[in-house]
Write a structure and sequence with these properties.
With 476 residues, the protein is of the alpha/beta class. Helix content is 40%, strand content 23%. Strand 18, helix 12 and strand 19 form a beta-alpha-beta unit. The structure holds nicotinamide-adenine-dinucleotide and the ligand O=C[C@H](O)CS(=O)(=O)O. It catalyses: (2S)-3-sulfolactaldehyde + NAD(+) + H2O = (2S)-3-sulfolactate + NADH + 2 H(+).
Length: 476
């Protein structure tokens, strides 16, 4: 696959644009070539998106937007295996996980198709206010216009769709800057959306690095909303750049998962195994800090350690592979350094802790201290820390002692405790008897503290791509 950027339905390439190879994170094979767009491409893309918003999208009825999205979902379903193989190739995602991502992406488009036809406002009970008698009032939502979308490498299809399908459902147009490590699936998706009926220029994609392209994109006067998913430092910098524009930030975390002595340990262990190590832990809600009540601490480890040790590491193309490569060797080296640093300060590596090229073996660390990076920062690697606790108060304080707050998991069979803790955890979402890593694509999703700003989840992302206008009538 050789791609450029997509502006007004035309793939722009050549004319001095730099070529970059996309290589498999597993074996280094060339998977495709991308030509980086320029600042002028950003200018063209935003101008196009602005024109198409006013000339075309504003006139397109909701039922038509819904139909186009439905067609896109059908088309993605028909090409699901091709997309899964591309995700596997460009991101090194094990093929079973890649299929899972495509399955979710199809659902995202279907949710967006339904939401495109949902109510876009509400009637206000005007006479609740003194002076509101004989008035009719309603709040109606309108698309903001041009949306700038910036996306990460780890779910290069689904997280792109959380922005593109929702913007289209809302009636907005988009300029997308996908992760430079995984631009191929984004471009294949853009073509699919155009074939399904997106008007030319409703979706524009400019490929290249964030450093080069994001500042001119998010500061462009015609851009009305910036939606970013990625790492915290970059996200908060983008918010500063974006100034008065609406901003959504979906950032990282070091997700806590709390296991009480009345929990079903088998379910907890299976859930941690999946939630801590899928896609080599490269998910923002990956299980990272596992707090276990003292009397079940050793029994939990006795069950978990052998299962983690037997995860199958290797070629993401194989159906049997559980753990593939990390996205780059640099990312794997960083994880290895954090593990070594913790060990040098007294932490115990119960299993894993080794690196071979881009692959970090699935790792469990105990005897950690709060200040260790593997505890207090986002590890974003196949690594969990297991920490004992005694009381509910103690574990709530420990879980909340974090700069982040995206999702949490709590395992207990005591319904009162479950709700008590759900109220007290400082996170955007809490699961009971499920790990932090689970997300269905229609729930409100987004972090507090340094984990982000605003919500995604199809309906919620659409809301954030609209402005509410009050319209009132005085009855004469
Ligand atoms: N909360 C969520 O929904 C969510 C989902 C997925 C990933 N994430 C987070 O994303 C991170 C991993 O993804 P990543 O490595 O692709 O993130 P990243 O921040 O490096 O890159 C994300 C996007 O930002 C751009 N970018 C990078 N550096 C930039 C800069 N200096 N200026 C402007 N733009 C820049 C990249 O080109 C890319 O498009 C993790 O921290 C993870 O937790 C969060
Ligand atoms: O990496 C973080 C993502 O939000 C995980 S998911 O794709 O939404 O499940």
């Amino acid at each position: 696959m050789h791609i450029g950027s997509l502006i007004n339905g035309i793939e722009v390439r050549g004319e001095g644009r730099e070529e970059h190879e996309i290589r498999s994170p597993y074996n280094g094979e060339v998977v495709g070539v991308v030509e980086y767009g320029t600042r002028e491409d950003i200018e063209q893309a935003v101008q196009t998106a602005y024109r198409v918003f006013h000339e075309t999208m504003k006139k397109m009825p909701a039922y038509r937007r819904s139909e186009i999205l439905r067609k896109a979902a059908d088309s993605l379903e028909a090409q699901a295996e091709d997309f899964a193989r591309l995700l596997m190739a460009e991101a090194g995602k094990p093929i079973r996980d890649a299929r899972g991502e495509v399955g979710r992406a199809i659902q995202v488009i279907r949710f967006a198709s339904e939401e495109a036809k949902a109510n876009d406002g509400e009637l206000i009970k005007m006479d609740s206010a003194i002076g509101g008698e004989n008035r009719i009032g309603f709040a109606k939502r309108y698309p903001v216009g041009v949306v700038a979308a910036i996306t990460p490498f780890n779910f290069p299809l689904n997280l792109v769709l959380h922005k593109l399908a929702t913007a289209f459902a809302a009636g907005c147009t988009v300029v997308l800057k996908p992760a430079e490590k995984t631009p191929l699936s984004a471009m294949k998706l853009a073509r699919l959306l155009e074939e399904a009926g997106y008007p030319k220029g409703a979706l524009n994609v400019v490929n290249g690095t964030g450093v080069d392209l994001v500042e001119p994109l998010v500061t462009h006067p015609l851009v009305k909303k910036v939606t970013f998913t990625g790492s915290g430092p970059v996200g908060w910098k983008i918010k500063e750049m974006a100034g008065p524009r609406k901003v959504t930030l979906e950032l990282g975390s070091n997700s806590p998962n709390l296991i009480f002595n009345d929990a079903n340990l088998d379910i907890a262990v299976e859930s941690i195994l999946k939630g801590g190590f899928t896609f080599a832990g490269q998910a923002c809600i990956s299980v990272q800090r596992v707090y276990v009540q003292k009397d079940v601490y050793q029994p939990l480890l006795d069950r978990l350690v052998p299962k983690v040790a037997s995860l199958r590491i290797g070629d993401p193309a194989l159906e049997s592979t559980d753990i593939g490569p990390m996205i780059t060797e640099q990312a794997a080296i960083r994880a290895e350094e954090w593990i070594r640093e913790a060990a040098s300060e007294g932490a115990t590596i119960l299993v894993g802790g080794e690196r071979n090229g881009n692959i970090v073996s699935p790792t469990i660390i105990t005897d950690t201290k709060h200040h260790m990076k593997v505890v207090c920062q986002e590890v974003f690697a196949p690594l969990i820390t297991v920490i004992p606790f005694e009381t509910e108060e103690e574990v709530i304080a420990a879980a909340n002692d974090s700069d982040y707050g995206l999702q949490a998991g709590v395992f207990t069979s005591d319904i009162n405790r479950a709700f008590r803790i759900a109220e007290l955890l400082e996170t955007g979402g809490v699961w009971i008897n499920e790990v932090s890593t689970v997300r269905t694509d229609h729930i409100p999703y987004g972090g507090v503290k340094l984990s982000g700003l605003g919500k995604e989840g199809v309906k919620y992302a659409i809301e954030d791509m609209t402005e509410t206008k009050f319209i009132g009538v005085r009855l004469l």
